[in-house]
Amino acid sequence: MSRYFSQKYASLVPYTPGEQPKDMRYIKLNTNESPFPPSPMAQSLARQAAGDLNLYSDPECRELVALAAQKLGVQPDQILFTNGSDEILNFAFMAYCDQEHPAVFPDITYGFYPVFAKINNVPYVQLPLGEDFSIRIEDYIGLNKTVFIANPNAPTGIALPLADIERIVAGNPDGIVVIDEAYVDFGAQSAVSLISKYDNLLVTQTFSKSRSMAGARLGFGVGNAKLIQDLNTVKYSTNPYNINRMTMAAGIGALADEAYFQKNCRAIMETRAWTMDMLRQRGFTAPESMTNFVFAKHPGVDGKTLYQKLRQKGILVRHFDAPKLTDYNRITIGSQEQMQAFISAVDEILEETL
């Protein structure tokens, strides 16, 4: 780094995205992208919007907000769209965390949470998961902190039932609880239904996974109207035009094309079940996933070796070096054909290794 870089960021360790190598053509099962293209309706509307890129986008995202509010059964003033769900998560750290209100989140979860805390100079506490990677509900009751929980969690894939989420929200009446639902559409229960009951709940979601728009960068938050007002204050103090015209139009098309969305979610869940069955037949173990990935390990091959051997065969999965995670690999659920290729490669590796 240069000698001009502010010392306040000297110890900052940035988030590490999944690798994107270009040396050969890979089957990418490492970044939890959808194997399906965006909805044809989303693509068509985005192309139309490209003709107006000389004009600023609507900072209120009115058409998109109205459609999302209708789909979710909430009011328009209870939704805020952002540049990916990462942006609204960062807004929440900015708006609701400080020296008197530290952040708290699991020690094994989305890797961006500690980065958001550090870049915003927010103290934070990481609570350990159980031995089975489950969130221990009692640890999150009665905290004078801002709670961040990914549900389903990443990289484990485990989801909490809605009743447990409500216990956490109700158990922290004087603090904000943020439920990050990036993967909720693959079989988990959403907490959006609770936002009118609790004024301290913020739910975030993304179009990156289930709506096939990772490259468009579109996310949103849902909460009490006053919370959305808070977050709009942060938004309008940083980047009022945070959603570009093409992304906004694509988002409208993706929401309108409900049949396409449901069909793709079903396909991923069916392929996930097939993949887990194949892996278990080969001796792998994994927590029950409610996401578009599985988190698996094998007793005969360590996680890093499996990751490296798969990479040599042109298949990327995500490996984490943290001690509690090193035996595992996070494997995105791709198309049926991609997962068949993955299982074939696993068979070759197991035959070579065991």
Q: How would you explain this protein's 3D organization?
A:
- The protein is an alpha/beta fold.
- It has two domains: 7-36 and 259-353, Aspartate Aminotransferase, domain 1; 40-257, 3-Layer(aba) Sandwich (Aspartate Aminotransferase, domain 2), CATH 3.40.640.10.
- It is built from ten helices and twelve strands.
- It has helices at residues 40-49, 62-72, 84-96, 112-119, 162-170, 225-236, 245-256, 258-281, 303-312, 336-353; strands at 27-28, 79-82, 103-106, 124-127, 146-150, 177-180, 201-206, 219-223, 293-296, 315-316, 318-319, 329-332.
- It has a seven-stranded mixed beta sheet, sandwiched between helices. Strands 9-12-11 form a three-stranded antiparallel beta sheet. The chain has a two-stranded parallel sheet with strand order 1-10.
- Strand 3 (103-106), helix 4 (112-119) and strand 4 (124-127) form a beta-alpha-beta unit.
- Helix 1 packs antiparallel against helix 7, helix 3 (84-96) crosses helix 4 (112-119) and helix 3 packs across helix 6.
- The radius of gyration is 20 Å and the shape is globular.
- The chain starts with 26 loop residues before the first strand and ends with a helix.
- The mean pLDDT is 97.
